[in-house]
Protein: Glucose dehydrogenase [acceptor]
Amino acid sequence: RLKELPTTLFTPVQYRNKLPTTDTFDYIVVGSSPSGCVIANRLTEDNQTTVLVLEAGMEDNLLTDVPALNPFMTLTDWSWNYDTQPTGDTCLGMTHERCPWPSGKGPGGGTILNAMIWTRGNRLDYDAWAKLGNPGWSYDELLPYFTRSENTRIGQLSGSKYHGRSGPLNIEYPPFRTPLSQEYINAGRAFGFREIDYNDPRTHIGFARIQASMKEGERHTAATAFLKPILWRPNLSISLNSQVTKILIEPSTRIAYGVRYINGPKEYEVHARKEVIVAAGAFGSPHLLMNSGIGHAEHLKSVGINPIADLPVGDNLQEHPGMHGLTFLVNKGVSIRLRQILENVVPAAATYLAKSKGILTSLGCEVVSYVRTKYANFTTPSPTVPDIELLFVSSGMNSDNGLLLRKSFGISDELYDYTYKPYNDRDAFMIWPMLLYPRSRGTVRLKDNNPLSKPIIEHGFFKEDIDLKTLVEAIKLAVMLSKTPPLQKFGAQLIKTPFPTCRFIPFGTDDYWECAVRTMSTQFHHQSGTCSMGTVVDERLRVHGILGLRVADCSIMPLIPGAHTQAPAYMIGEKAADLIMEDEFQNNVIR
Structure:
């Protein structure tokens, strides 16, 4: 790999990326999201089936493989760089009071810039999907699809039937961890929490090292796992830098027969013999459907689009809201700081390139903990289900002197300078509370009838007061954890400089923390639910009222699971591929 560096650092992977040489394929997959990559892989296992993948983003390269760069990928062209509408009572510490909402744009979709955290959620999350009238989507029915993708390389889990070992996607522990991570787990033990395998459905409350989608210390994306190994298949075509602008639907028969897309300055059409499969994510998929005439009829008319199917596309936006920025200073050099990396960049790069080890293999997040607050009885179906995830991060908001991390979160100059700048370059860690089962919902709508305009995203955070109060309880638990003997070994001290928006509220009170959450509101790239199963698609992911059109990504989730959504996204792709092949077989029998 050291020999490859000079020529491959900025050299794209060769996808045989070109415009299609034919205008008709059996299947067109819109978006190389995790679900889209899986579907393309599985369908082309039949060498008689032709598949075209259209991806709006550009090629990946060696930089996108470096785990430690994940917070900064959101500032690049590998992200759609969406943001939310100002509300006046959320995202108050962000520039223009807009929360940034990154979304992957490139081979692998969100897996090109996410934190690689591999969690599935609770078994009752999926049983709830089935109970809503979606047969085939219970946990027991979905477990084989979860494990089908996995190649778990964690020795402690080798005997577990809940982990796959022969799939294309590698799951492992990140090679690098700071001394802080084990002491955080020990802090959990001081509160009576066990160390768990959070992907074992028998136990979901406790603390754990992160299982990550990595291979030998590198990011393992959906494209790396599912597309690159099969680029030789003659029945697979991939066109990057190709943004689909419209699904072509025959008005009289309501059959989807192809798509229109832009590559460079030109517009093209390509046709599907069998199906168009939309896997563009929880923002991209509803955006494309609405631009194609599928959505709320009145909304479509208001922006000058003729409605073809009146469906609640763009409703039910769900996310795990939380708070970034809860930072604790420590008195020993045990955290990750930008200066530390820069001063040792040559040996760090050499260690990474030669051995796939060292600080560049860090995710930033090292431990997750699943806990129940006093509100859990109102928001979860069972005492075995947590309502909060706490993410332990081995650096502080101050650890790079405000150069990059706070920009990736959209934090304003005023807030950073007031609250964090006095602590620049100090060793620190963060604990991020994440709400697993929000009651609040948002929407995605069109700005106008230009398919290249970004959608209008109303996040809806904290419309339901219980969401806010649950996060306040999580923050108080995080502060208590910092005071346990394991973390006091490092002199852990919460930064108590208030946020400027909250400086007139007594620090540490519930009212202060409510203000803090409204100031440092955040999402975790887990957008979902906007083409919901039941209301927009059926249990086989077919769009209601339109033949030959499916949606297969996190937008189909009727309820967000208590999980980082990449593992469910792969599962949806595996399940969708089977549904597509089953329906094709049935159609052939009928013919």
Q: What stands out?
A: The first helix runs from residue 5 to 8. The chain has 18 helices and 25 strands.
